[in-house]
Amino acid sequence: TRAFLSVRDLYVRFDTEDGVVQAVDGLDFELERGRTLGIVGESGSGKSVTNLAVLGLHDRRRTEIRGEILLDGQELTGAPEPTLEKLRGNKMAMIFQDSLTALSPYYTVGRQIAEPFRKHTGASRREARQRAVEMLDKVGIPHAALRADDYPHQFSGGMRQRAMIAMALVCDPELLIADEPTTALDVTVQAQILDLLKDLQQQTGSSIILITHDLGVVAHTVDELLVMYAGRAVERGTVREVLRSPRHPYTWGLLGSMPRLASDVEEPLTPVPGTPPSLLAPPPGCPFHPRCAFTAAVGGDRCRTERPRLPAGRGAACHLTDDQQRTTFAEQIKPR
Ligand code: SF4
Ligand code: MG
């Protein structure tokens, strides 16, 4: 049987003034009910584009999507806009990085939470208002009945993020996509928001995709992890597997820029030197080869010419052998 969300061989291309961008290039992943998948990568790795495609929020005139996105058995890639609109906010919802763009400055917070509830459930104004207050209370806004009448600018950044979560969850979505939900917040508030998401997930049994460039954010929040680079998944596994014994050189670099996890290591790894490739003309072979220090270990021209495949289940898209993947990281962090 299929997972709750199943993405198969997804390609997303769009036109820009400079040419066609291959933003997502053959992506596969699955998400079960009640589980959290972290998608990690630098900006431009395709993680946000993937999720806009799932939600049907891409610009349809400029974007070409191929592949399969099945949500609870329903195919989304070819679904007409009215179908997607019905699903959005109801069965699937999104939390954005910036609550100021997601919340309108012109309406009270309570009204903005009540509206989608009215739209999707046909509840009365009074019922919807009641529901909005309940949701604000649930996400930890004190004096929710009073604060519901405030405008977004009267809320702090952390409270706006909570309000946005309340808005996203008001119709009990089964899939929640959170794109860098805590990036704009300070570390303490970040941790509170992530805890809140976990708590709410435990109450509702929803599935979550958490998109981030920060491996520190995923460590305590997600079950499975997908590492993306240049529009492809380069490594996948449980969060424990990937953080404890990462197998892709790019993941090694990401981990190196996260000192918290390397605390049992004498010297922190250096972050990946270089910049992500242009998706207007992605490098042939392994897209990571221009930045990779291990092409010689693979030998010959292989990294530059042959595209490595990501195996199903635990693994990395890299020509290094499983043994090399396992041992090289351990050697790298061995104190000298
Ligand atoms: Fe590096 Fe080659 Fe592995 Fe790509 S396939 S990550 S270039 S070793
Ligand atoms: Mg993004």
UniProtKB/TrEMBL annotation:
Pfam families, sorted: ABC_tran, oligo_HPY
Transcription among keywords: no
Gene Ontology MF terms: ATP binding
Stored SUPFAM superfamilies: P-loop containing nucleoside triphosphate hydrolases
InterPro entries the record matches: AAA+_ATPase (IPR003593), ABC_Ni/Peptide_Import (IPR050388), ABC_transporter-like_ATP-bd (IPR003439), ABC_transporter-like_CS (IPR017871), Oligopep_ABC_C (IPR013563), P-loop_NTPase (IPR027417)
Subcellular location: Cell membrane
Superkingdom assignment: Bacteria
Principal subcellular localization: membrane
ABC transporter domain mapped to chain residues: 5-255
Gene3D superfamilies named in the record: P-loop containing nucleotide triphosphate hydrolases
Keyword check for Nucleotide-binding: yes
Keywords from the named record: ATP-binding, Cell membrane, Membrane, Nucleotide-binding, Transport
Membrane topology of the entry: Peripheral membrane protein
Family that this chain belongs to: Belongs to the ABC transporter superfamily.
PANTHER family from the UniProt entry: DIPEPTIDE TRANSPORT ATP-BINDING PROTEIN DPPD, OLIGOPEPTIDE TRANSPORT ATP-BINDING PROTEIN APPD
Protein name: ABC transporter ATP-binding protein
